[in-house]
Amino acid sequence: MAEKSAVDRSTFDKVILPVYSPAKFIPVKGKGSRVWDQQGKEYVDFAGGIAVTALGHCHPALVKALHEQGETLWHVSNVFTNEPALRLAQKLIDATFADRVFFANSGAEANEAAFKLARYYASHRHSPYKSKIIAFHNGFHGRTLFTVSVGGQPKYSDGFGPKPADIVHVPFNDLDAVKAVIDDHTCAIVVEPVQGEGGVTPATQAFLQGLRELCDKHQALLVLDEVQSGMGRSGKLFSYMHYGVTPDILTTAKALGGGFPVSAMLATEDVASVMEPGKHGTTYGGNPLACAVAEAALDIINTPEVLAGIDERREKFISALEGINQKYHIFKEFRGQGLLIGAELSDGFKNRAGEFHAAAAEFGLMMLIAGPNVMRFAPSLVIDFADIEEGMGRFEKAVDKVVGG
């Protein structure tokens, strides 16, 4: 076996396409909510791989599922079906509104499938001119040309040539703005129940309820992007369950595989029934490895014990953040759902989220930002209370350094 060549952070700058600006350290090992870098320095993980490692690093049940499937069957393509995919699909259907599932590899791919399905359904059932998609400013749905165009952040979509047409963006949580643009040419409204990248902002009850009613009135589909808010992150299996609003299509990824790349698009029988073999597909989607791990993750996350513990952990985070805020007065608002928490910086610290983020790493804390003004926390859903306490202690040291500096 070939020897592993020595690599460090400087290697990144030579060999990787310059679309990322990663931290100066390289994580090499993780266990639970602790991570160690090349030098052996330990970090508490409040980032969760951007809401992905929902059961922490190397959870024994996921390791076992991966190992067992890895010795059995890796890949057969969708020329054949496989048992892990069928089991996972049935469990997702049993736990949600959905009747049909399509598996892919990433949130962007699940959203791409959802937007294509919404357009195809409208064309098939109503009219080829019923193609308008209504989406929201600061929304984020992925990086393919279609999904990045539906996303409401032009900085991610500008410069790549002509964008897919017939996509309209309006302000989030503004029902009147939606009413002003929706018409009988609208095929879908696409929305995150909690805007993640856009600042960890939840939809209001009236807004999401109103979107459902507008979709029904105009024979449009309600598409919920739960790539970040789903799989227990909100305190329920999916965020829509807090609102009593049922979508026509839902997408999930990130935490679905607990760290293994997998995603799913869920749909009702009525919507799914317009599709036929060859209309959409993916080589790797629904492969046995990914689905075996995702099934193990779902079996753990979708339990009363884990879901009930999420709000309890949220309270610990909010309480610690409030304590820090009483001392340093750096936050104006805490928001989000469950263990997707956004702490918005006060006006005196505007545009300085990056500084707090960098300082946190210095003190052994991995966390996230959501734009230049929001600190984002998306830890493991089963993070130990001791790890929350330790991590928030490290965050306070980082805050003290930035404020004092």
Description of the molecule:
By secondary structure, this protein is α/β, with parallel strands linked by helices. The protein folds into two domains: 9-58 and 304-404, Aspartate Aminotransferase, domain 1 (Alpha-Beta Complex); 73-301, Type I PLP-dependent aspartate aminotransferase-like (Major domain) (Aspartate Aminotransferase, domain 2). It has 15 helices and 17 strands. It has helices at residues 9-15, 48-51, 60-70, 83-95, 107-125, 145-150, 154-157, 175-181, 205-218, 240-243, 269-272, 288-301, 304-328, 353-362, 385-404, and strands at residues 27-31, 34-37, 42-45, 100-104, 132-136, 167-170, 186-191, 194-195, 201-202, 221-225, 249-252, 263-267, 331-337, 340-345, 365-366, 368-369, 374-377. The chain is globular, with a radius of gyration of 21 Å. Involved in both the arginine and lysine biosynthetic pathways. Pfam families: Aminotran_3.
